[in-house]
Amino acid sequence: MRPRLLDYVRALPEEDLPAYVYDLVALRKHAQAIRAALPAWVEVYYAAKANPDARLLAALRDHVDGFEVASAGELRHVRELFPGTPIAFGGPGKTAADLNYALHAGVQRLHVESVQELHLLATLLGGRTAEILLRVNAPIATGPAPLVMGGVPSPFGLDPGDLDHCLHLIAAQPQIRLCGLHLHLASGMDAPAQLALAGDILAWTSERDLPLSEINIGGGMAVDYNDPDRLFDWRDFGAGLEKILIDHPGTTLRIEPGRSISAYCGSYITRVLDIKRSHGQAFAVLAGGTHHLRTPAARGHDQPFRTIPIDNWPWPWPRPTATGEPVTLVGQLCTPKDVLARDVHIERLRAGDYVAFAMAGAYAWNISHHAFLMHPAPGFHYLDEA
Ligand SMILES: *Cc1c(COP(=O)(O)O)cnc(C)c1O
After folding, report:
1. Ligand 1: does its nearest atom lie under 6 Å from the Cβ of 184?
2. Which helix (H) or strand (E) holds 208?
3. Active site residue 166
4. Which of 242, 257, 272 is the last residue in one of the domains?
5. Are residues 245 and 268 in the same domain?
């Protein structure tokens, strides 16, 4: 945690917790570094579903080429915030209303994921045109990854056996322009694995021998919740892409990372309500919980955190304390699944201390089950000066 952020967090009054703090300065710096590490002809679209917070999107806008949205709701949100910014709209299960809105809202790229969707789009065009990518679940092995959506049976994208049929439909429909292919096959891969996959994708797409200028290889660049300092190696990735693309002149490569861009800028700050021992184990009960920060429950990991000692203890009785022992950090929900970090060795933690969970800027607040138990929502803070 950089000193300015730590000062900010320490100064938050306890009645303002739990709270999310987004470090927009760090976010801009991170996005700039990613942009600088990549060749100029690699386009970066931020996947809004990782975190669509309006101020976070505004901080990113000048450092990405566009935004990828996965629903008409995200599309409306991003379009209203940034009328001129390029948007790519993907995702399975688009309704006629979704497609109509996409045509109306001026989406730059529509990712078509099935034969049915292509038919539906064609009937909705009226006098309008659509520039599309076909998302294909290509027969490419991704290797092990935390989330695999391609190269195996999945509801995402076209089966490669449907590709020719789609090409025929598009050939008969001059208002649909096929710009390229989209292959988001897996999530959570490090730079060498992503590079190998990018190479396989470009080899597979060029074998199709189609007059396509764009390949979108998706997002999924890994973050390591066990080691917040171990970042995806964007420089290696950029240098590797440069080499791969020598064999594919004229191709625009697009990536659409979400988690690896915004995860690091978010912290979830809370305070210890109680420390108790149960059958020999220490539990710290925190304000809030997984209904605010579902990431550790969803992924089954310990959310990285640091403790922030608060010396003020206003009560006349002994302060509940855990010292030099494994502690399980839980929230206020009445379910044993409300665990943010399990059996983590802690030097000292007391009721009233603050706890700052790191890497809470992606798939955190926005994937959480806010309504469960009707606890109040957290506050949202933005650190916007160095
Ligand atoms: C979710 C998603 C992304 C972003 O994935 P991250 O793991 O957040 O980088 C990009 N493209 C598609 C199609 C997605 O579904």
Report:
1. yes
2. none
3. no
4. 257
5. no
What is residue 209's predicted lDDT score, i.e. its pLDDT? 82
Q: What is the pLDDT of residues 344-356, one digit of tens each?
A: 999 999 999 999 9
- Mutate which of 30, 51, 68 for ligand 1 pocket (most atoms within 8 A of beta carbon): 68
Task: Check whether residue 269 and residue 369 sit in a common domain.
Answer: yes
The ligand 1 atom at the shortest distance from the C-alpha of residue 47 is: 4
Say if ligand 1 is within 6 A of residue 294 CB: no
Domain interval for residue 163:
86-257
Sign of CA dihedral 154, 156, 160, 163: positive
CA of 190 to the centre of ligand 1 (A): 14
In-domain check, residue 73 = no
Specify the CATH number for the domain of residue 314: 2.40.37.10
The alpha carbon dihedral of 234, 240, 242, 248 has a sign of negative
Q: Assess whether 181 and 202 both reside in one domain.
A: yes
What average pLDDT is seen over the chain? 95
Q: Is the CB of 238 under 6 A from ligand 1?
A: no
Q: Which residue has the tokens 């992924």?
A: 299
- Final residue before a domain boundary, out of 235, 257, 279: 257
Which amino acid type is present at position 315?
W
> Given the DSSP bridges, would you call strands 379-383 and 321-330 parallel, antiparallel or unpaired?
unpaired
Q: Phi/psi of residue 310, each to 5°?
A: -120, 115
Query: Do 248 and 269 belong together in one domain?
Result: no
| Mean pLDDT score, 215-221 | 96
